Fold this protein.
Amino acid sequence: MNGPSQEMLELARQMMARAHAPYSRFHVGAVLKTDTGKLYGGCNVENAAFPQGLCAEASAIGNMVAGGETVIREVVVMAKGEPLVTPCGGCRQRLREFAREEIPVYVCGPEGLRHTITLGELLPLSFGRDHLNISKA
Ligand code: THU
């Protein structure tokens, strides 16, 4: 839990800048570090049919899986504004699919780290693949 690397922060800033958020005007960047050390970024992608919008975390997960990886070791979520921006409920569960409860979620602003919390703290007593008796992919 040493905090995000400069490389993670820089990618998160870039992702945030690329968000497609013409409706909320709330730009979010997410970066996942996997067990190979590789980084995958994502941004929120909104839609004129509002419920079809995609969170930054979900888009980063899609990039990671498309890149052939499935084990998340660290997460950065970055947004502007004063309140801490943590992953929404749905994205906590999406992250849980690919991460252990102990992994850090670095809640960041454009200037850097604001708060560190584990996925287990964000999603306690979570439901996962172990409940379905399915071993790791
Ligand atoms: N959003 C994310 O992308 N990630 C979060 O962790 C919180 C919310 C997006 C969804 C929507 O495009 C905008 O922020 C406002 O809710």
Q: What stands out?
A: The first helix runs from residue 6 to 18. The chain is about 25% helix and 25% strand. The mean pLDDT is 96. The longest strand covers residues 72-79.
